[in-house]
Amino acid sequence: MKAIGIRRHLPTDHPSCFVEVETPRPVAEGRDLLIEVKAVSVNPVDYKMRGRVAPTDGAPHILGYDAAGIVSRIGPEVTMFRPGDKVFYAGSIKRPGTNSQFHLVDERIVGPMPKSLDFATAAALPLTTLTAWEALFDRLDIDRTGKHDGRVLLIIGGAGGVGSMAIQLAKKLARLCVIATASRPQSADWCRKLGADHIVDHSKDLTAQLKDIAQPVPDYILCLSDTATYFPVMSSLIAPQGRICAVVSATKPLDLQPLMDKSASFHWEYMFTRSAHQTPDMIEQHRLLRETSVLIDKGVLTPTDTEILRPINAANLAHAHGKLEAGRTIGKIVLADW
Fold first, then answer.
1. What's 24-68 look like in SS3?
2. In percent, how much of the chain has pLDDT > 90?
3. 274 lies in a domain?
4. Which of 79, 229, 235, 260 counts the most CB atoms within 10 A of its CB?
5. pLDDT of residue 231
6. Looking at the structure, do residues 285 and 241 belong to the same domain, yes or no?
């Protein structure tokens, strides 16, 4: 089968940044599904993992997490899917990635693909939806049926993949007042289109801007950018007994002391926790993606792909990684068709 991998970390403009190879088709065992991959999308974790690969003369390292495709074979313990099913998922950080024609994934982190979407559009959704959902409803403990209607959520980094889903989930399910940060007119317009009530600029004084819109103490903060950079202002802004959640690793230790007198809490969200640690509730990601499909098909949630590159090859994958590394993307970049 065709696959796209890396042998060592190279810049995206290097002709050997990614290499195209032929590898054996894997065999489904246990609860594994063998997926015929039709489309993939890229996330910041892709280029971060690319930067960690050590030089090797052996088989190239296959990256990629988001995918949409067709179940080709199933392991003997599979109960939820059958060959021919269309599915989407975000994979596991501990297994070979989705940048290959066929890919193995545990059925417990796979969902039925939305019937209203094609493979390319569906591939943009899994990782960012899972991250946003877990951050809002598991880590921040926001009620997704609207019991916290009117409470204020500040999303730092609203126009990226996770932010694009977090705005929708917070507004359309939880019915929060959503403040999203964006630093460019295009990204601000994107956030408004997805349902943000207010836009503030994360490159400027957030405290002053929140006062200007009469929302100086958000009940919740979701940080999708550099955690260490924004932690001091988040600690200052968060409401008493409020909650902060971050998804980006801290580049230096965080001083939690300012949260104490507010009884405020800080939480990490890492979408791969359940699959990497085989947690007892690992199947929640299947349920989550299944519900996402229903919400997409009902028109409650909107797809977030903004660019589709064809075909899936080394050059297009390098191009997608380069755009993500530049930090100026809106929504999601997808690669489709081999």
1. CCCCCCCCEEEEEEEEEECCHHHHHHHCCCCCCCCCCEECCCEEE
2. 97
3. no
4. 235
5. 98
6. no
Q: What is the CATH number of the domain that holds 161?
A: 3.40.50.720
Q: Tokens for 300? A: 């409650």
Q: Are 159 and 99 in contact (CB under 8 A)?
A: no
How many whole angstroms separate alpha carbon 168 and alpha carbon 17? 35
Residue 273 lies in a domain: no
Does residue 230 contact residue 238 with C-beta atoms inside 8 Å?
no
Domain coverage including residue 100: 2-125+279-336
Output the pLDDT for position 56: 77
- Residue by residue, DSSP assigns 208-271 as HHHHHTT--S-SEEEE-S-HHHHHHHHHHHSPTT-EEEE-S--SS----GGGGGGT-EEEE--T
Global confidence as pTM: 0.97
Are 89 and 162 within one domain? no
Average pLDDT, the chain: 97
243 falls within a domain? yes
In this predicted structure, what is the pLDDT of residue 89? 98
pLDDT tens digits along 123-157: 999 999 999 999 999 999 999 999 999 999 999 99
Same domain, 239 and 227: yes
